[in-house]
Write a structure and sequence with these properties.
heterodimer; A: Penicillin-binding protein 2a (Domain 2); Beta-lactamase; 2 domains; 5-stranded mixed β-sheet; 19 strands; B: mainly alpha; two-stranded antiparallel sheet; 69% helix
Chain lengths: 588, 406
């Protein structure tokens, strides 16, 4: 096909073949020299004198609160590892270890299997060894082969905050989880990794960078020599400074006493969370050392669900705070004059229906305008006015306040609440099983199929407090301030609503009067959310200006009763914490 | 004698023999990868990944097999330019391990530099076959050298010293095959030897005298010979400056390691020492499959690719090395046979070039594991784990199969 013929010369062919044979023979002779003639030397070298690259560690970063109080630090313990290849007479040796450490042979074997990661890599089989145990192991060194002990830092939680869910915890890596991790961090089975909460969220910041140390070891895994050149040093992880004020956190925790619930306090301007309490809780120390299986089961089966961080993973009906959503729609779309008054007789019968919907105040509020309706949380006012709003508009308003999204707080495993829309109702109740007017009667009271997390509720109140432009919620004090999408409503709308919220706390017969403070103007909304689990949930969502900053708070007492009676006083106490001598509060 | 001739010059079915050898090499590689994978059947193990790469490469092989030789010949310049431009793509992407060698395709990385090696060969082959009547003239070598330098310079800036060096490998064999005179080839090798010799005064002097005798022995213009001679000497004298100002720290380190691996037992020579210990301790019959204490994860970080021969040596012993070396020998010899029997000049030259690439990989990689060459990061054809190079090997295979059909 191609026009020029091949004129390869037999001489050239032989030259290349000669080069090929010569090269292969040279390689083979070198292999022969190494493998056959010098075999003895390398064989003994491979057994007796190995240079081993060994990982070295540095402390994990600390976690501090906004005032520099150390919340999580490192606690040195000793761990025992065994290198499978060097392990001889496994049963006998495990017996010795078992005698010293009082860990059963079965347990040792279980860990040996669980953390095994190769014949030549050390496997962790015991933790939290005391110095006395280390000494005994050292004494019986000659009976043991392949065992090594080394320092291993565990997390130590500050007593004042050792039950704060958001801190999270570390967990030992097992082989199954290894493959999904960042390869460049050189994780190994048995090492600790941030598994929940901030420890997980900021793993890459907190984690040390691993180093390498070269040592010469003999057949027993004993170090003969450390070679210092070319060692790569390990560097400690970076500290994490939180926006949490541990005094306030502790103070608010005490306010809940033994009630189930949540207290959130944040700075509206920066998104900093100052306090994030979720009650009941549990002691994070449970992740240290050897917690028994029954302790675990007790914790997991506790009906108070202490293991859940209710702030981000608890879903609750929001109750009357959602009347504000209706109010926003009414004013912004000009559906009625806020000054117009309606008559509340204590009950409402929707047109064409025979069902009666009651106000919480049985004998009625009398004449109510929007301001009074918010302040006194009049159901009838909102039953009537919500009939002016289209379901889709109402849902849209609820959604722009972030209720269909995560708050993007820097914590893993945040849940999203539920804002039902038309599609939801059709799927749940069938096409004809519900009516737009009917569900609105429920929605406007924040009842029915609406669910929110307390953190979403905090975002909601922050949006209102900042008139639509509020910073993203965060726990890391040094994280850059970012903003949620702006909510653009007319100035008049914001003012009307905010005046209403002011009257909730400050006006005569406002539902949240128990939260009132003389020195600080507190705005808020109480909610009493009916739910199928017993007494209603008591809510208070509010905000106040203090020393040039705007702070917001969310109080939720699960099945606590009325928002006005139960949640408002707690909110008042939190405001007091700001105005009173703070030191005094801590000493209480 | 006829049997011998038949063996040396081969039977008619060279391709069948070639595929058989390749199949054996791949099988050997997989057996070894299975042994060093922690959990061989998991999808992330080097064993399973290698199987996926092979299947993928096989598909590419079957597709490329449809291309006509004439198409390759007629478009060789275009093919070269495309692959040359492809090498620029990584510079616009995020660097991988601080280099711009790879393009991330999601399931594996491709290394455009690898393909530039092949297209450089095709372009040179076309040039030489178009100027066949001039091969006896000395100047014929300039264009091939220029093309090679261009490719090599680009790859060197990625930076990839290993690939940049390998691009030079086909140059001499192709020119030899094309019929360029021995003296011209000597002129080409001379500066390289001069540079190596420049590290030692005595060797440099001996080389200087030897070179002088060779120059005098060949006929030619006296003035020209003297000029070339002194150009060589100056190269040797200038080399130290080049060494100090032009090479990166790690490139220099690799050369130093090569010259004296015992100098720095814990630095990059660590790999060589551990590799030699692994090979040496394997003995005649090896420690057995999966039993290599030196190679099983403990010491060698790239045992599945760069140091896979060390694993074979440790686990299967000298016996295993004999088998693998025989397979390598058969691979290269069959390829040379195919080139020799090929009916047209262009095809023959391309096959010789591609063969040189495979052979230089085998040579450099094996020599590295036994401490005869610096640590280069060059994988072994058909045996080492790695997607990009496996794909290249299959592309070479498909080119050879295409070209030999003529």
């Amino acid at each position: 096909m191609l026009k020029i013929e091949n004129k390869a010369d037999i001489f050239h062919y032989r030259t290349l073949l000669f080069i090929l044979i010569f090269s292969i023979l040279t390689l083979l002779s070198r292999y022969f020299y190494l493998q056959v003639i010098e075999h003895e030397r390398y064989s003994s070298k491979s057994q007796v004198n190995s240079i081993r690259a060994q990982a070295t560690y540095a402390p994990r970063g600390l976690i501090l609160d906004r005032n520099g109080v150390v919340l999580v630090e490192n606690y040195p313990t000793y761990i025992l590892t065994v290198t499978p290849y060097e392990l001889e007479n496994k049963e006998t040796q495990f017996q010795i270890i078992s005698d010293i450490t009082e860990i059963s042979i079965d347990e040792l074997s279980r860990r040996y299997k669980k953390y095994y990661q190769g014949q030549f890599l050390p496997t962790i089989i015991a933790k939290n060894l005391t110095f006395a145990e280390i000494s005994q192991i050292e004494e019986r060194r000659l009976e043991l082969s392949g065992f090594q002990y080394k320092r291993f830092d565990e997390r130590l939680y500050n007593d004042i905050l050792k039950d704060a869910h958001f801190l999270g915890y570390l967990r030992e890596l097992d082989r199954e989880s290894l493959s999904s991790l960042d390869k460049s961090q050189f994780y190994r089975a048995g090492e600790l990794i941030g598994w929940q909460g901030l420890e997980k969220q900021y793993e890459s910041q907190l984690r040390y960078s691993k180093g390498t140390e070269y040592i010469e070891v003999d057949t027993f895994g004993r170090e003969i020599n450390t070679i210092n050149d070319n060692n790569i040093p390990a560097y400690p992880g970076k500290n994490l400074v939180l926006s949490i004020d541990s005094k306030l956190q502790q103070f608010s925790k005490n306010l809940l006493t033994d009630q189930r619930g949540v207290i959130l306090v944040s700075n509206v301007n920066t998104g900093d969370i100052l306090s994030m309490v979720s009650n009941p809780s549990y002691n994070l120390d449970i992740y240290r050392g050897e917690t028994t299986g029954s302790d675990w089961n007790d914790l997991l089966s506790d009906e108070g669900k202490p293991i859940i961080n209710r702030n981000i993973a608890g879903l609750y009906p929001p109750g009357s705070s959602f009347k504000i959503i209706t109010a926003f729609n009414l004013i912004e779309d000009g559906l009625l004059d806020p000054e117009d008054s309606l008559m509340c007789t204590g009950s409402y019968i929707p047109p064409g229906s025979s069902n009666t919907f009651n106000c919480w105040k049985e004998d009625g509020h009398g004449l109510v305008n929007l301001n009074k309706a918010i302040a006194q949380s009049c159901n009838v006012y909102f039953y009537e006015t919500v009939q002016l709003i289209k379901l889709s508009d109402w849902i849209k308003t609820a959604k722009i306040f972030g209720f269909e999204k995560k708050t993007d707080i820097d914590l893993p495993n945040e849940l999203i609440g539920q804002i039902p829309d038309k599609e939801f109702f059709i799927n749940t109740y069938g096409r004809w099983g519900w009516s737009e007017r009917g569900v609105l009667l429920n929605l406007t009271l924040g009842q029915g199929d609406i669910l929110v997390t307390p953190l979403q509720s905090l975002r909601y109140i922050n949006h209102i407090a900042s008139k639509g432009r509020t910073a993203k919620l965060k726990l890391n004090a040094h994280k850059k301030v970012e903003y949620y999408d702006d909510i653009i409503l007319s100035e008049q709308t914001w003012d009307r609503v905010i005046n209403g919220l002011y009257d909730v706390v400050n006006a005569e017969s406002g539902s949240g009067w128990r939260a009132k403070q003389s020195e600080v103007k507190l705005y808020g909304k109480t909610s009493t959310a009916e739910n199928p689990h017993g007494e209603p949930h008591a809510w208070f969502n509010g905000f106040f200006d203090f020393e040039g900053q705007t702070y917001s708070l969310v109080v939720l007492v699960e099945n606590g009763g009325g928002g006005g009676a139960v949640a408002s006083p707690i909110a008042g106490e939190i405001v007091k914490f700001f105005t009173n001598e703070q030191v005094e509060m801590v000493n209480k | 004698m006829s049997f011998f001739n038949n063996y040396i010059y081969g039977s008619n079915d060279y391709l069948g023999r070639l595929y058989l050898v390749v199949l054996s090499l791949i099988t050997f590689g997989l057996i070894t990868l299975y042994s060093i994978s922690n959990d061989p059947l998991s999808i992330n193990s080097s064993f399973m990944r290698q199987i996926i790469f092979i299947i993928f490469s096989l598909f590419v092989f079957l597709i490329l097999n449809q291309i006509n030789v004439k198409t390759i010949h007629d478009n060789s310049t275009l093919i070269y330019i495309c692959s040359f431009l492809l090498c620029f793509v990584p510079f616009f992407l995020a660097p991988v391990e601080n280099t711009y060698r790879w393009i991330d395709l999601g399931f594996f990385y491709i290394q455009p530099g690898e393909y530039l090696k092949c297209t450089t060969i095709i372009l040179i082959a076309k040039y030489l076959s178009n100027h066949q009547l001039e091969v006896k003239e000395g100047y014929i070598v300039f264009i091939p050298i220029l093309i090679t330098l261009l490719s090599s310079f680009l790859v060197l800036n990625q930076p990839d010293l290993g690939t940049a060096a390998i691009i030079f490998a086909p140059l001499l064999p192709m020119m030899l095959w094309a019929g360029v005179s021995g003296f011209t080839l000597f002129l080409l090798i001379a500066p390289v030897i001069t540079i190596i010799a420049a590290s030692n005064n005595l060797i440099f002097n001996i080389w200087g005298i030897l070179m002088f005798i060779i120059f005098m022995a060949f006929q030619g213009s006296f003035l020209k010979n003297v000029l070339i001679y002194f150009a060589n000497i100056f190269t040797g004298l200038l080399f130290p400056f080049f060494w100090n100002d032009f090479l990166n720290g790690y490139q220099r380190q690799r050369f130093i390691d090569f010259i004296n691996p015992d100098l720095d037992p814990m630095g990059s020579s660590y790999h060589i020492i551990q590799s030699i210990t692994a090979i040496g301790s394997g003995g005649l019959f090896g420690k057995g499959w999966g039993q290599g204490s030196q190679t099983q994860l403990k010491f060698l970080p790239v045992q599945e690719s760069d140091f896979i021969l060390s694993v074979i040596a440790e686990e299967f012993g000298f016996f295993g090395i004999l088998i693998i070396m025989f397979l390598f020998f058969m691979l290269i010899k069959t390829l040379i046979d195919i080139a020799f029997k090929s009916s047209d000049y262009f095809s023959s030259l391309v096959i010789i070039g591609l063969t040189s690439i495979l052979f230089s990989h085998i040579l450099v990689n094996s020599a590295m594991t036994i401490g005869l060459m610096p640590v280069k990061g060059l994988p072994t054809p058909f045996v080492s784990a790695g997607g990009s190079f496996m794909l290249l090997c299959f592309i070479i295979l498909s080119l050879v199969s295409n070209l030999s059909k003529n």
